[in-house]
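Read as amino acids, tokens; as here:

___
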Amino acid sequence: MADAFLGLGGNLGDVRATLDRAIARLCDGREVRLLARSSDYRTPPWGVEDQPPFVNACIAVATALAPQALLARALAVERELGRNREREQRWGPRPIDIDLIAYDDLRLDRPGLTLPHPRLFERAFVLVPLAEIAPDAVIGGRPIADALRDLDAAGIERLPPRSG
């Protein structure tokens, strides 16, 4: 089994419910087992700023799937939950986005998959929830806590747990 981190987010519909459904579909307990889930965070839009705020979270999983298979599973879950990557604006509004952030200590640069995620260290909306569940993690030779100190996390707000 390999350990992997995934980032999830969205800003259309009931995003927190969508995140819960996405994690349930991703983590079947056999091929992908959930190890940790961050809190949900309200975050300012990134890339395209004229859109609603996002809700973001990160998960840590143990997986028997190869990196490409784990990514394919994540993309299938996105489609099941209403995302159409072909029809949307890059970095624009979406019901769900699932990114494979890191997979063990693997460094990979293939069409469609780069590990660790190439923009990880530019994105406080990923590093804040990731630091919550894996504060001592080192990805791509860089400690998460150090990378987060280099970014502006203003506007990122930890949301209270969902009731029910």
